[in-house]
Amino acid sequence: MKIPSAIERVLLSEETIAARVRDLAAQISADYADADHLVLVGVLKGAFIFMADLARQLTVVHHVDFIALSSYNRGAVTTGAVRLIMDTRVNVTGRHVLIVEDIVDTGYTLEYLLRTFHARHPASLRACALLSKPERRQTEVLVDYLGFEIPDVWVVGYGLDYADRFRTLPYIGALKREAYEGDKK
Ligand code: PRP
Known about the structure:
Layout: E1 7-12, H1 14-31, E2 38-44, H2 48-57, E3 62-74, E4 77-86, E5 96-104, H3 108-118, E6 124-132, E7 145-149, E8 155-156, E9 172-175, H4 177-180
Parallel strand pairs: 2-3, 2-5, 5-6, 6-7
Antiparallel strand pairs: 1-9, 3-4, 8-9
Helix pairs in contact: 1-2
The structure holds 1-O-pyrophosphono-5-O-phosphono-alpha-D-ribofuranose (PRP).
Residues 43-46, 71, 78, 101-109, 161 line the site of 1-O-pyrophosphono-5-O-phosphono-alpha-D-ribofuranose (PRP).
């Protein structure tokens, strides 16, 4: 497959991602083996591909649901404020909630999600993220199931975008700096 010219390098190949998703699914399936009412809450849009692959590997009964958020970004700079655009359909009270994110960057989004779901009194609440950029963290959040730690580079593919492009690349690639630098304010 031809790699778009805006991509500097492939950070995580399709095979590497698939192997890690299998491991995460096995771990989650073991941990929730005795849990009734597991609900996966995928965070749109970025998590849609990870969520689909992860959910199909789980061997425990679960429901899938989604939530959509918007962060108040100014170009490449996040301001930390998060807005709820679409809520889950299911009532999570008394259910085991597993938030599924593509990436934890500053941590503000996951912090908001954990606070929001905690207030709804789930039976348990954990977070799963495919990627984390520890260097970018502004607030301490616990990621119970993490795929990969990555350096502070702009990544796209496997659900992640730049201006809504590149989401459906099968791998995770680092964007060339010149492709997004003009957006930094
Ligand atoms: C991304 C990502 C996380 C959030 C993480 O979403 O999917 O939800 O940012 O960043 P944070 O840790 O700094 O809060 P984005 O706002 O790009 O929306 P999208 O998933 O619809 O592309």
